[in-house]
Each structure stands twice: as structure tokens, then as C-alpha cells.
Amino acid sequence: MENTTSKYQLGLDRKEAEEALRAFLESNNEAKVFAIKGDWGIGKTHLVRTFLAKIQEEYHYASVLGVSSVEELRMQLWSNFRSDKQVKSSEVNRFNPRNWFKPIKDNSQNIGSLIEVIPTIGDYGAGFTPAIIALLSNLVLNNSLQKKLICIDDLERRSGKLPLDELLGFIENLAEEKECKVILIYNESKIAENPQESNTLKEYREKVIDYEIKLDPDSVENFHIGFGNIDPDEDIVLNYLSRENLQVNNIRVFKKLKWNLEKLRPYIVDFLPKVRQQIINEIIFISLSKLDNNFPVNLDELVSLGDFSKLLSERKEGGREVYFLVTSLGYTNSEISSEIIRLVETSFCDYQRFYGEGNRLNDIESQQSQHEIRKKLHEAYRLYSESFEPVEEELRKNLIEFLDHYWNFLDFRELQELTSISEVINLDVNFYVEKWVRHKIDHSDNLDDLYRLQAILQENHTFEDENLIADLEDKILVFEKGMSIDAILDKVLKTKSWSRKDADFLNACTPERWEQ
Fold this sequence. Notes:
The chain has a 7-stranded mixed beta sheet with strand order 1-7-2-6-5-3-4, with helices on both faces. By secondary structure, it is mostly helical. Helices cover 58% and strands 6% of the residues. Among the domains are: 6-217, Rossmann fold (3-Layer(aba) Sandwich), CATH 3.40.50; 220-349, no CATH class. α3 crosses α6 (130-143), α17 (351-380) packs antiparallel against α19 and α21 (430-443) packs parallel to α23. The chain is elongated. It has 26 helices and 7 strands.
């Protein structure tokens, strides 16, 4: 093959890599072999598959993982035909060799006899003897792969029984003799760990590979592949990675991190932003320390240290350094840490214990932060009370920003005050009011709060969520049905004590009810 290898020394992002691949696939491009390399989990295979599906390009795919001979590779290429025109790109189009051999069946009685006893080929030609594989693979190569697009993945993961030079020789044969276009996908750094294979790749790349690129997208690109385009905690995760200067770029790691977050998110949704962020940071830390080989801390080693508090008094080298490193990265070694570790290690955790400890931290922070929240609220509408200038737009912005962070920490009076101001400046806050009402319905455990909530909804003429109103009335009925003045007074006389719930009920009763 003519030595026309074009190398991009710097890594390309996903868009640049797609453009290079598009240029390679142009019909007037005489190049035959395109290599895309990069670290494991960077998204090489994902990029190739999604791009070929997007342009509806048919191709034969094979992973060399565990493959021990060229014959096995040929059979896998044949059986793994992919076409977005027929099936989804992630599906395998399986063929029946009886149908495939039909056009050439009359050419050979031996082949015809052979076909009668061959089962349908699966993903990898399982169940075939070496002799049958050799015969069929030659027939496949000569009759079905001619001038096709071939994608060969995981070169560094092949079986030790298949030498790299033999594999690269087969690829050269596909390109030169069979006039195929070939896309190679591999992790060169893993091949480089073996000096002999590194030299083999260096020798063959000049005469086999025409285009060679390194895929190296930034963390944000791969985050959105692993997490999706929209995630409620995107800013927290990306800020954590940026703040700690962490080069996390493995899509599989991002997907597992998202899974861990989704398991625990429902239990921290109503926590103060500061507490919620602290817990999410710890989920990120523990997930990465377990899953990402490039993370500065290894979870197994960290857990093996034992009593974390003793690290500060550790005299041997490294103990205190580890302590300050992991605490700076968000690790607390608390009961919350233990449950997150359990989830990461086993996919299970005691969610009630996790929530209970988180709620305790939230209560502590809430007591410390209530004054600050009140200050933030008053600061948000300070313009309204102090200025005669037309500052409504800035006031709307301030109130929305406040509600985004603190809607569930408002008390009844503050909500009424805020909604009154919102009506004056034509700001629709019903979205936040509905969230606040739902939160109160779900968490209120006394009739007094429920009656006050009912009064607020009756006064708010713009509130039209009939389902929430019905839920509130149902909860009030449940409370009232289980309580009566007679029953509570009887219990108080017998026990010589009462609960806050009892007192709230009696205080909420009307004079007419007491008279009855």
C-alpha cells in the first residue's frame, strides 16, 4: 500500500473526528484504512457507530476481544452486518447460511452437503468446528466482504493466540485485495505496554494505515453522552470536576456516576442547597475513587486505612497527606459516606439510614442558615421597599433566583408576603407555590398547618391546581376523622399528657365545635 499515512498529533474533539471520518468515506477518497485511537471509555466506538448510523452507512463490525484467529474474525465480520436502513445500529442482523449460500449451492456438492447440517449462525459462529470455520471464513471473505466497509474494534484486547502482525496483515489484505474500506479502533497506550507489539504497530502503520486520529474530547462532551443533555445537577458535577482540575473523560464512568446519583437524589431533593451540594460532592468523590483509574484516590485503599480520624495523628509518612487530600475532595467518612460506599460497591444501601443522617445534617445547617435565608429573601425584594425607580425587571430576577434555591424553606407568612409582592409586579410564581404546597401537604403532620395552608389557597385566586386542593382536603379529612375533642380530652385525663399534634388540633377547633 502506498505510504500516504496522515497523522494528527493532537487529539480531536468529537466534531473534528466526525469530519475526518466523513472525508475518509467520500467516494473519491482512495484511502483504505482509517485508525481512530484513544483511551478506554473515551467514546471511540460510540462515535463510529452513531456517525455511521447518522449517515446510514452499512458496514460489517467485529470486536477482536478474545478472538484467537483470523478465521474467527472473518466469521464475526460476516455475521455482524449492521445497517441503519434495516435495523437499529445497536442490533445485530443475523443471517441464515442456508439463504446466503443459495446462489452458489449448485457450484459445489460438498458445500451443499455441508449446509444441510449447519445451524443458524449467531453472533460469533458458536458451535462450529475449526475446519468448518476455516472453510466458511474463506467463502465469506471471497464472496460477501468484497468492497464493503469494515469496522474492527479492540485491537489491543485480542487473544494472545492471534499475533498483531497477522491481524494487521489480514487488514492489509482486506484493503488491497478485497478493496474494502477499513476503520480500526484501538487504545494505543495499551499496545505500547508491550514493546514487541508497539514495534509491530509502528512497522505496519506506515504501510497499512492511511488516516490516523486520536479522539480526545473534553469532559463536557463525554459528560453529556453519559448523563444526557439535561441533568438537574449538571452544574454541580461539572463545577466539581473543574474546581478539582479532574480530567474525567470516561463515558462508562459518567454513566455509572449518573446511576448512583439517580438512586440517591430522591432522598436529598428537599435539603438546603449547601447540604445537598455537599452530599452530591461526596457521591462524585466516592464514585470516581472506585471507577476512575486516573482519580488521585483509590476507594479500596482508602477504606483499608481503617479509623479515618487517626490519620491526623499518623506518624508514618502519607497518613496526614491522605486525610487532607480526601477531605478537600469532599470525603467526610460519615454514615452518609458508608451508605454511598455500600451503594457503589454492591448497588444496595440503607436508604432510610442515608436519609436520616442527611436530614440530621440538614436540620443543623437549617438552624444555622435560617437567618441567612431570611436575609436573602429581604435582599431579594429590597428594591421594592426602598426604591421609587422602575426596577420591576430586576426585582423579578431577584425573586426568581431566590425561589429557585429556597422555595421549600419559606414559612406561611413569608410565602404570603412574597406572593403579594409578585402580584404587584405581575410575576407568576404559581410554579413555586404549587411545589411549596405539595411539599407542605406531604410533610405537614398537624391540622393547624393544614388549615393555614387551606386558607392560603382560598386567598390565592390564581391558584387553580384542583388535584393539589383535593389532596389537601383529603389529608385534612383523614386527620379530622381520627381526632375529636372528646377523644383527645379523654386521652389527656388518662395519660396526664398530650402531644403537640393533640394541642394543635384543639387550638384549631372553632368555638362552634367546642360548643358541640
